[in-house]
UniProtKB/TrEMBL annotation:
Protein known as: ABC transporter permease
Species of origin: Leucobacter alluvii
Organism placement in taxonomy: Bacteria, Bacillati, Actinomycetota, Actinomycetes, Micrococcales
Compartments in which it is found: Cell inner membrane; Cell membrane
Membrane topology summary: Multi-pass membrane protein
Residues that span the membrane, as ranges: 7-29, 64-86, 98-119, 125-144, 180-208, 228-248
Length: 260
């Protein structure tokens, strides 16, 4: 009886969590112009309409470019910081760690306004460097945390064994440390990419009219229209997210990434 009750509760929770996604997918196939669930003949009209919308496609291109660059930059800078925090003792270590994790404590609106005031005088508003710098601040804590988690749970004896056998620091990192912490790095990179691609509040302040990201374009679209077009776009993004998860699962295993 307890097992049956437990399964019922779990099923209800899953349905509750999946209900918004299911609703979005159903609405995306509506053949009417109402943003409501209608069970009729499926139509791909809104998928075609969205793919032909130049503003949304340009926003998707900007978001994709920004997310890829942000993920690469965050990995190049965040992983060394995590290594320094985990492996070395130096003055101000706690302050450095707190500095890189502090963006998680600042509301997005406050951070976006502050970045706008800083970027405006130097001409970074509405540029790729400006958007990447803004997204760097909100994504680097995740890379540092996932990498630190992998480093703190890794076996130091493997690195010591490599040094005993004559490997220098770079070889030890490349052949021993990096493979061990790879799931954590991958997890941080994926999170940085998704957060950057999905960031809306900060992008509203720093993107301007020069390079508008997809979330900003979606907000603008919703201001003037209430058709299932955004539902179709959301369904496409959901499908892409599933593909990314499957690729991670095939590459390193989803459980390794999550547990890191």
């Amino acid at each position: 009886m307890a097992k049956i009750l437990n399964r019922i509760i779990v099923t209800i929770v899953y349905l509750f969590l999946l209900a918004p996604i299911i609703a979005v997918v159903i609405i995306s196939f509506n053949d009417s112009k109402s943003l409501a669930i209608e069970f009729g003949a499926p139509s791909f009209e809104w998928y075609q309409s969205i793919l032909e919308n130049t503003d949304l496609m340009d926003g998707a291109r900007v978001s994709l470019i920004t997310a890829v660059i942000t993920a690469v930059v965050v990995l190049l800078l965040g992983v060394p910081v995590a290594l320094a925090i985990a492996r070395y003792e130096f003055p101000g270590k706690a302050a450095v760690s707190g500095f890189f994790l502090s963006p998680l404590l600042v509301p997005g609106v406050v951070l976006g306004l502050g970045l706008l005031l800083v970027f405006q005088p130097v001409g970074l508003v509405g540029t790729y460097p400006g958007i990447v710098l803004a997204h760097f601040g909100v994504t680097v804590p995740y890379v540092i945390r996932t990498t630190l988690s992998s480093l703190t749970t890794s076996d130091m004896r493997c690195e010591e064994a490599a040094r005993v056998h004559g490997a220098n620091s770079f070889t030890t990192f490349r052949r021993v440390t990096l493979p061990i912490i790879a799931p954590g790095i991958l997890a941080g990179g994926v999170m940085a990419f998704i957060i950057s691609f999905d960031e809306a509040v900060i992008s509203l302040f720093v993107a301007g009219s020069g390079h508008t990201t997809l979330p900003v374009e979606m907000f603008r679209y919703l201001q003037y229209r209430s058709d299932p077009g955004l539902a179709a776009l959301s369904a496409i993004l959901i499908a892409l997210s599933v593909v990314i998860v499957l690729i991670i699962e095939r590459a390193v295993g989803l459980r390794k990434v999550v547990n890191s």
